[in-house]
Amino acid sequence: MKDFKDRINHIKTEFDASLEQVKNKEALQDIRNLYLSRKKGKITLLFNDLAGLEGKQKPEAGKLINALKTHVLKSLDEKSTEAGTKREKPAPVDLTLPGHKTWWGAPHPVLIFKQEIENIFTSMGFSIADGPEIETDYYNFEALNFPPHHPARDDWDTLYLDKGDLLLRTHTSPVQIRVMEKQKPPIRIVIPGRVYRKETSDPTHLPMFYQIEGLVVDKDITFSHLKGTLEVFLRRLFNENLEIRFRPSFFPFTEPSAEVDMNCTVCKRQDPDCRVCGGSGWIEILGAGMVDPQVLKNVSINPEEYSGFAFGMGIDRTAMFAYRIPDMRLFYENDLRFIRQFSKK
Ligand code: DAH
Fold first, then answer.
1. For residue 269, how far is its CA from the centre of ligand 1 (angstroms)?
2. Which of 25, 163, 219, 244: CA 20 to 30 A from 68?
3. In this predicted structure, what is the pLDDT of residue 289?
């Protein structure tokens, strides 16, 4: 028993001495392991050796070891807060150093422009709707009056998915069908969203871009409603004096159909060599028309009772004219020097 007591005392002296020397956290951890590790710690071994003592001596020896263990734990704790406090002392502040610059996030220009458009339409009583970017052939084409294999489909360079008849929507027009299936007239909605086409990127084309679609269906809707709505919209978006013109065109889902041009906001119809309008003075800005009676029939709306108009416009493409940006790709290259210019605050 005396041997055992000596051993305990010896361990305590040795522990106290080595703790004195500790300068950093790593050394502290080493000591903790040396004395307390679960397999070979010096104190752990003492507990193991208890078994070899005579029965009567065990409780006394056990108490001594426990006392040592408490001492070791407490000393380690004290030392570690001491080390911690030392480390946390703040470094002296150098008030001459330059400060850290704070960057604020800013909305993306295409988002800003999209919201401007939405605000104009909601102020005219339109609601905002949306639909899926992965579409079926039915919604993207067939219900919009493109029969299977009809050559009109070639105008939309479609990206097909390899499962079922799924595709990436080539325009926002399929959402017209989805809304009319669920909602009875009167309908007055705009549908902003991403669309996809198999295009090689160039200054005016991208495989992904944004469109906004408009749809109005009610009793006695005429072409003059379409004209008036688009004129008010474009004048509010660009400027009060903007001139617009309608040219006859073709879309399977509208009859009659029109292409809408506005006068060139870049050269103001003054530059015969203008790179934006090619000197014609006009920029094609949207497609529009009266909803084809067949499209109404496809969604069980009676074309004898109701009529409607629709239109579709590229958001990023129109933003190019509004902000006078020569290359649409700039919107998506994420060069912050470009993007930050549009934030108003
Ligand atoms: N979906 C057409 C396109 O992507 C744009 C369009 C034209 C939409 C005429 C319409 C419309 O709603 O009436 O080119």
1. 26
2. 25
3. 98
Q: How far is the CA of 164 from the centre of ligand 1 (A)?
A: 25
Sheet holding 307-314, edge to edge: 127-128, 187-196, 208-218, 307-314, 282-291, 254-263, 244-251
* Cα distance from N-terminal residue to C-terminal residue, the chain: 82
- Pairing outcome for strands 307-314 and 282-291: antiparallel
pLDDT at 86 over 70: no
- CA 221 to ligand 1 center in whole angstroms: 18
Give me the pLDDT at residue 251, please: 95
Segment 237-258 shows an average pLDDT of 94
Q: Is the CB of 140 under 6 A from ligand 1?
A: no
| Exposure class string for 94-103: b at 16+ Cβ within 10 A, else e | eeeeeeeeee
Q: Domains plus CATH for the chain?
A: 2-85 (no CATH), 109-342 (3.30.930.10)
Which residue puts its alpha carbon closest to atom 10 of ligand 1?
311
Please tell me the pTM assigned to this model: 0.71
Which ligand 1 atom minimizes the distance to the CA of 213? 12
Q: What is the pLDDT of residues 170-186, one digit of tens each?
A: 999 999 999 999 999 99
